[in-house]
Here is the input.
Amino acid sequence: MQFRRWTLFNFARRIQARAVRRCGELLKQFDGRGNNQHDDGAVSMHAVAREAGMSERQQVTAVRVANAPAEQFAAGVDSDNPPTVTRLA
Here is the structure.
């Protein structure tokens, strides 16, 4: 029973890491300037994250995870003992 619990826990960590990385990728599509809407109509990364209910720390962590090299991210997430999202950041 212990083995199954840890297996499911590791699957959950992998899913969470991939979701956080994707969130960071989506946030990076916004310009990242300032805190509100700009004169040209562009919305900042901070405004989008705030609207989504993310804290500033969650936003920073997601972008850091998204900035990790793909090979290193995949190696960590697919390992036998996947790291936490904070460690990936």
Remarks:
- The chain has a mean pLDDT of 86.
- Helices lie at 2-27, 45-51, 56-67, 70-77, 85-88.
